[in-house]
Write a structure and sequence with these properties.
- It is a single chain.
- With about 80 residues, the protein is mainly α.
- The protein is built from 2 helices and no strands.
- The model has no long low-confidence stretch (mean pLDDT about 85).
Length: about 80
Amino acid sequence: MAGTRDRRLRRKLKTLRRMKAKAPTTRAEMSHAREEMAQMVASMEDLRLELDLMKASRQQQFDDMLLDSEAVDTLIQIILQL
């Protein structure tokens, strides 16, 4: 039982050491990591705005298409009344 516990603890320690080795440690690294995160957030916000514009454009196209079909229906009704 103690052997299993020791293996688990060694594995956890190894994982923590690996994480620590990959983690930014200096202020410059932390600052750089923050800047990267800020850039990622900004690019995600830009993509969200672009998507909203695309949705609005599609909605406008759909609305225009409906108006065109209503105009055609009106013309057909006028022609049928003649």
